[in-house]
Amino acid sequence: MNARRIVLASSSPYRRELLERLRLPFVTCSPDCDETPGEQEPPECLVERLARIKADSVAGQFPDALVIGSDQVAAVGGRILTKPGTHERAREQLRQCSGQRVEFHTGLCVRDSASGVESTLREPFTIHFRALTDEEIERYLHTEAPYDCAGSIRSEGYAITLFDRMEGRDPTALVGLPLIPLAGMLRAYGLLLP
After folding, report:
1. Residue 3, pLDDT score
2. pLDDT of res. 69
3. What is the pTM of this model?
4. Catalytic site residue 64?
5. Can you count the helices (H) and strands (E) in the chain?
6. Which position among 56, 71, 112, 170 bears the catalytic label?
């Protein structure tokens, strides 16, 4: 039996749904932190830093817990693609992705709030987009409305029709919480999985 309390430092329903797959009881707590990228901060460094500060911002509220922080950014040609928020921005992002290789970087941090020990990593995932027409982009956006997703894609849904191929070790990293390395990290802290 797993006795440690687990806290997901996130308000993301996608991360919550992913963590539920591990069948461990957990609570969620929204982190309170500045997510502004540093000047010329590469996406790889940004996601690890943000995962760490998200876990750290919540750890003080749970003095004997394993706190999970995660963050994700998408980048095309070195430019970070944020959550678009609007239809127009999503359309522009997908035009930028058309025919391109898009790198998704997901940072993951597990912090033991009792000891202060933490493990952090970055899980990469690459999507090769096929060439998209404006009509295809519009149909996708009207069907999926991925305005709260990095890079304007919801890969576990209809976005799969936009891709030529995908490369990566852990497809859950693309959704925002890489479960393969997370399960390994939790086992290292003594949790029983499976």
Report:
1. 74
2. 98
3. 0.90
4. no
5. 6, 7
6. 71
